[in-house]
Amino acid sequence: MNTVELTGVSRWYGNVVAVNDVTLSIGPGLTGLLGPNGAGKTTVLHLMAGLLAPSQGEVRVSGEPAWRNPAMYRNLGLVTERESVPGFLTAWEFVLASAKLHKLPDPAAAARAALDVVELRDAQDRRISTYSKGMRQRSRVAAALVHDPAVLLLDEPFNGMDPRQRMHMMDLLDSMAGEGRTIVFSSHILEEVEQLSGTVQVIVAGRLAASGDYRHIRRLMTNRPHVFTIASSDDRALATALIGEESVSGVSVTAGGLQVHASDYGTFTRAVAKLAKARAIRLTSILPSDESLEKVFSYLVTT
Amino acid sequence: MNPTIMRLTARALLGRRRVLLLLPMPIVLIGLTLLGVASEDEYVTAGDWGPLVFGNLGLAVILPLTALIVGSSALGLEIDDGTITHLLTKPLPRGEIILSKLTVAWLVTTAATAVPLAVAALIAGSGALAVGMVVGAAVGSLAYSALFLALSVMSKRPVAVGLVYIVLWENLLVSFVDGARVFSIRQHAGALADAIGDTPLVDSSLTVLTAVLMAAAFATLGTYAATRRLRSFALTGEAN
Asked: InterPro entries in the record, alphabetically (chain A) (predicted)?
């Protein structure tokens, strides 16, 4: 029953449509909400968390309406993107206060358990204002977890984390999802979620653009067309060789080197070095053209 | 009411540098009272300086400004810095949150205003006025706190709106339009202080019954409006 369901949900601010007719159902396990900045991910999460009223449609968490229903929070935890923590408290005070506000039977034990999960017990008696960004994030995760919710929503949980912290957070989310919880997190960096399994909902410009298994989305990503600028010891010879490759759809010779249109990012990048070596051509630079995330996402949308 | 919310609110209010803003006003009040008492002779009576210090400064400036600083911070600071989400994502009736916040704001405002006003009244030699000031400040604090707490949930600029009420309504309009004083919390506090104190140090023109009823109306309506608004409080600003 730990489901998050959006039915025909739209949300607009004046003339601006932030979320446009989104229908989705998220069950237990790990789900990534992906999309470029400004796509409406935060709005969707806030709608799920009952902190925003849908302008249209309905949001239900475990069958209960999310909006104007404080009782729902017994079952739901939220970690917002905004790094807002009461810095004058220690992590222990902060998490304990959350446990008390949830009116748990044994708030101290619940706070200890939550701080254990995020491995913050050693630093729990320091003020949160002295923490690093990752530790603050973990203290907020602990506060959101203290009542053992079946549904946990996290807005950009990997933002500002170093790779090690990111790994730790991913392991944490993975293991919580393994316990049968419904974990939904948002991210605007596709590579961030590479290690994660589970399902993905892609949101672009307020619309649900794609949804499905993460591996499927990743395959689409690595197989996407791409433009490279290549400089070598013999551009023309290289161009002749490249056009024979199946993963290359076009080559043009310019003053700055070769412009290569690859139809398949993955295959092309693996093939190009071998190809040059076989013809004793020295590659001096391979530059992928600047590619905005929006482009990647909109490519995913059209396929 | 929720003891955890009250404890956190009190720590947030009293732990910030903003609380130091409350210090200079009582010092000025007590200093002016000493001056007033010292200036009394056969030409200058208590009725000459008393209403200025207790009414125009104490009840018209110190009480509302203290209530504004405290009342708009009790919940407003959390709304500003976004920590309100921690409170909102708890299975708590919204009325419980508002009542806890209101109680803390009321107690802090009362302590910060009633004590210096009572001390000033004692310096002026009136024990009855000291009691009157405590009662007036307590009732006024409750009405003001409820009003400013409601403003902090309903408006993005609670301090500005609060100042408009204090300066334009309570000080300017009341002196031109007599009926406006019925809706002035400062007048409610003054009427109670005057009725209990019964000295020439304060004057007022409202009846005690009107004052009590109107102050109660402000407190009730403020609490109701704040609770109602918090029930459908939507996060704004950071939505993308």
From this structure: AAA+_ATPase (IPR003593), ABC_transporter-like_ATP-bd (IPR003439), P-loop_NTPase (IPR027417)
Q: Does A45 touch chain B (CB under 8 A)?
A: no
Number of domains in chain A: 2
Cross-chain residue pair A39–B94, CB shorter than 8 Å: no
Single-letter amino acid, residue A181: R
* Dihedral angle computed from the Cα positions of residues A112, A116, A118 and A122, in that order, rounded to the nearest 10 degrees: 90
Q: How far apart are CA A168 and CA B184, in angstroms?
A: 58
A140 and A26 in a single domain? The answer is yes
Please indicate whether, in this complex, the C-beta atoms of A49 and B89 are within 8 angstroms of each other.
yes
Q: Establish if A55 touches chain B: CB-CB under 8 angstroms.
A: no
**Angle formed at CA B101 by CA B110 and CA A108, multiple of 5 degrees:** 120
Cβ contacts below 8 Å, chain A against chain B, sum to: 84
What are the residue ranges spanned by the domains of chain B? 3-231
- ipTM of the prediction: 0.90
Provide the token pair at A231: 């400089």
Given a cut of 90, is residue A297 above it in pLDDT?
A: no
A232 plus A216 within the same structural domain = no
Comparing CA positions, the residue from B50, B184, B213, B212 lying closest to residue B176 is B184
A78 touches chain B (CB under 8 A): yes
Same domain membership, residue A252 and residue A206 = no
Domain that holds residue A238: 223-302
Contacts of B15 in chain A (CB under 8 A): 88
Q: Is the Cβ of B12 closer than 8 Å to some Cβ of chain A?
A: yes
Residue of B nearest to A72 (CA): B91
